[in-house]
Design brief:
Elements lengths: L13 H12 L4 E4 L4 E4 L5 H11 L14 H22 L4
Antiparallel strand pairs: 1-2
Length: 97
């Protein structure tokens, strides 16, 4: 069942973000408002949640959907983790700036 989270002006987003994160970690899909429309969000690491996005959008599984990330650093960490595993990832995280 859908739940609508509203923004509290005194404490903007704190409770709402925690709830949204809980939904995502439980494999749910959430809607995120933007300035022009709503976007659907799911954890990219959760294959079943991604399937739910496709079902909600009634989109062919062969059509790609965008993946939003926080930046190049995050992308590099994910590539290293996927290709080389945890040992190299820990080495990379400990490199001097």
């Amino acid at each position: 069942m859908a739940e609508i989270l509203t923004v509290d002006e005194e404490k903007p987003l704190t409770d709402q973000l925690e709830k949204a994160l809980k939904f995502l970690k439980n494999g749910e899909v959430i809607a995120i408002p933007t300035d022009t429309l709503y976007g659907l969000a799911a954890l990219v690491s959760d294959e079943e949640a991604i399937k739910k996005v496709y079902e909600i959008k009634e989109r062919n599984i062969k059509n790609p959907i965008p993946i939003l990330i926080s930046g190049k650093y995050y992308l590099m960490l994910k590539i290293l983790q996927k290709c080389f595993g945890r040992v190299l990832l820990l080495w990379y995280l400990n490199l001097p700036n």
